[in-house]
Write a structure and sequence with these properties.
The structure holds two protein chains of two kinds. Chain A has a single domain, classed as 3-Layer(aba) Sandwich (Hypothetical Protein Ychn, Chain: A), CATH 3.40.1260. Chain A has four helices and five strands; from the N terminus they run βαβαβαβαβ. In chain A, strands 4-3-2-1-5 form a five-stranded parallel beta sheet. Chain A starts with a strand and ends with a strand. The model of chain A has no long low-confidence stretch (mean pLDDT about 100). In chain B, a hairpin with a 5-residue loop joins β4 and β5. In chain B, about 25% of the residues lie in helices and about 25% in strands. Chain B is α/β, with parallel strands linked by helices. Chain B has one domain: 3-Layer(aba) Sandwich (Hypothetical Protein Ychn, Chain: A), CATH 3.40.1260. Chain B has a five-stranded parallel beta sheet. Chain B has a two-stranded antiparallel sheet with strand order 4-5. The chains are: A alpha/beta, B alpha/beta. Chains A and B meet through β5 of A and α4 and β7 of B.
């Protein structure tokens, strides 16, 4: 069964997202939370990493953390889905394990 | 114990700069009391936790590196060190502490606990776990 990966660090400061993307199995999900959502905006140097993840995995970003940082839905890399806290819980229950990249 | 679960402790931080590595060790030691199937993963800067020759005297900090060598006595015998993480840092397994355990099934022969695994294998190991704890 698949794995949910959470990333809570900015890809411009830490390698948490990079390391996460390097350890994905097809069918896994990545959820960006806290400063992790900074990697969700299109046009950044981190976008290629997110696009690589989107090939075989789903990528989500937590809507409240996006909103807090002024990132609008239309600015997200194509394919990223947003979830609220309830959606976060759903993702946890839909996967066999959760790995936190911090 | 009946319901043995597969536990993976993922270590991605160097020791001493932050509290993560020491906290991970504490949790591993506590977890050892529950007789689960335990494995440690060392990824990214986590590989620095196993460096040989750590000397914290001048830094005035507790040197906890010897604790890794004692984990074999607590049935913690699977240290998976990621090859790519070592290479990115200019390290080889020769730079790490020798860590062994005694195999009671083979007349207490000393066996290495450290296993160097590629990123693809590490990915597969993660996908096999019941519980993953990250530090």
């Amino acid at each position: 069964m698949s794995t949910l990966h959470t990333v809570n660090k900015s890809p411009f400061e830490r390698n948490a997202l990079q390391s996460c993307v390097g350890h994905l199995t097809a069918g896994d999900a990545v959820l960006m939370i806290e400063d992790g959502v900074l990697g969700a905006r299109k046009g950044s140097s981190a976008a290629a990493m997110v696009q690589a993840a989107l090939e075989n995995s789903s990528v989500y970003a937590l809507s409240s953390d996006l909103a807090a940082r002024g990132i609008k839905t239309e600015q997200l890399i194509e394919g990223i889905q947003t979830v609220d806290y309830g959606g976060f819980v759903d993702l946890v229950t839909q996967h066999a394990r959760t790995v936190a990249w911090l | 114990m009946a319901n043995k679960k597969k536990f993976l402790y993922v270590n991605r931080k160097a020791p001493y700069g932050t509290i993560y590595a020491l906290e991970s060790l504490e949790v591993v030691l506590i977890g050892a009391a529950f007789e689960q199937d335990v494995r440690l993963a060392f990824i990214d800067d986590g590989v620095f936790q196993l460096m040989a020759g750590q000397d914290t005297a001048a830094a005035g900090m507790k040197n906890f590196s010897r604790t890794y060598k004692a984990l074999g006595d607590y049935e913690v015998r699977k240290f998976c060190v990621e090859r790519e993480s070592l290479e990115e840092r200019g390290l080889t397994v020769e730079d790490l502490m020798p860590i062994t355990y005694e195999d009671e099934d083979e007349d207490y022969a000393e066996k290495p606990s450290i296993q160097v695994v590629g990123r693809a294998e590490m990915t597969a190991i993660i996908a096999q776990q019941d519980v993953v704890l990250s530090f």
